[in-house]
Design brief:
434 Repressor (Amino-terminal Domain), Rossmann fold, 3 domains, four-stranded parallel beta sheet
Length: 339
């Protein structure tokens, strides 16, 4: 081996630094339990200091464990949930696993069949699916079958459903703006093919009616800044609309630009809110009021569930913050007094 080659830290080095036997370190890595808290702390500190990671190939040969996890995505997909996948990969890596992303073509039934092939193949220790897999739980399990968790928060084209499509925060936005004196609203919606867009439209209309406010229309948008820009530019100069509820941040950005191009201050003349809390919106002028969608938390929790299942541990505490949370910034403010 060349003199300048970087050697991987070994289990012997971890044991020496932690002042325990290598059998104790091996037991810790197998998650067998029964170790004293002080021993666990010393081993973890040594692993952290040395940057030790298990040799998955050697472990697989020795224990028949592969150290590999698979995340199943339907293919082809409109977009990839990169933030979710990055967070899940970090949890897997910290636990000593390699995470692979597997795209599976076909409808739900074909995906279920492919997933079962993977689960029963012995190639992976766990499978995490982001979309539903009908009938999978009915398949006969064997001792060698991999653990699997179905998140089910995405449809066949990785469009958010379930908690990701929860639109209740739209009601919070409208109630907040109504409390600031706003009575006349416009909604720039996302494409109807998205359940999240449909849900936000429905909640918008319901809350407007419940609070006795006035909606000046629902614009059928396409998630682009241009469609919201055009919608706000099309408002009459005498329009009483003082608040725009955009279904995502790019559309909110387009609405803000259109207002400024018309000489309307934001939020002095027009308040605008978005959704997704994209980084650009946080640094825009004015900064965007938006809805934080914590996809990182979703990825972490899903992977923690899978790893706990593999290890035979209790499911992690699910008492987390909601995935969708309102954050108020400069683009929303009190309603103006229009002459």
């Amino acid at each position: 081996m060349p003199d300048n080659a970087v050697r991987r830290p070994t289990i012997i080095q971890v044991a020496r630094l932690a002042q325990v036997s290598h059998q104790t370190v091996s037991r810790y890595l197998r998650h067998n339990g029964g170790l004293k808290p002080d021993t666990v702390r010393r081993v973890e500190a040594a692993i952290e200091e040395l940057g030790y990671r298990p040799n998955l190939v050697a472990r697989s040969m020795r224990t028949r464990r592969t150290g590999r996890l698979a995340v199943l995505l339907p293919a082809p997909a409109l977009l990839l949930p990169t933030r979710l996948l990055s967070a899940a990969a970090a949890v897997a890596h910290e636990a000593g696993f390699l995470m692979e992303v597997v795209s599976v073509e076909g409808g739900p039934q074909e995906r279920s069949e492919r997933a079962w092939e993977l689960i029963s193949s012995g190639q992976v220790e766990g499978v995490l699916s982001l979309s539903s897999l009908p009938g999978l739980s009915d398949q006969p399990r064997t001792a060698s079958s991999a653990a699997f968790v179905v998140v089910g928060e995405y449809d066949d084209e990785l469009r958010g459903i379930g908690e990701l499509a929860d639109a209740s925060v739209v009601g919070e936005i409208i109630e907040h703006l109504a409390g600031l004196g706003h009575r006349h609203f416009l909604h720039v919606a996302g494409p109807d093919a998205w359940s999240s867009a449909r849900a936000r439209r429905q909640v918008y209309l319901e809350v407007i009616e419940r609070l006795g406010l006035v909606s000046h229309g629902v614009v059928d948008g396409d998630w682009s800044a241009q469609c919201a820009y055009d919608a706000v530019r099309a408002l009459p100069d005498t329009s009483p609309v003082t608040a725009v509820i955009a279904a995502n941040d790019p559309m909110a950005t387009g609405a803000v630009r259109a207002a400024l191009d018309r000489g309307w201050g934001v939020p002095q003349r027009l308040s605008v809110s978005g959704w997704d809390d994209l980084e650009l919106g946080r640094f825009a002028t004015p900064s965007l009021s938006s809805v934080v969608v914590d996809r990182e938390e979703q990825g972490r929790v899903a992977m923690e569930r899978l790893i706990a299942l593999i290890r035979g541990e209790p499911e992690p505490d699910a008492a987390r913050l909601p995935l969708n949370r309102l954050v108020l910034r400069e683009s929303t403010g009190p309603a103006p007094v229009l002459g």
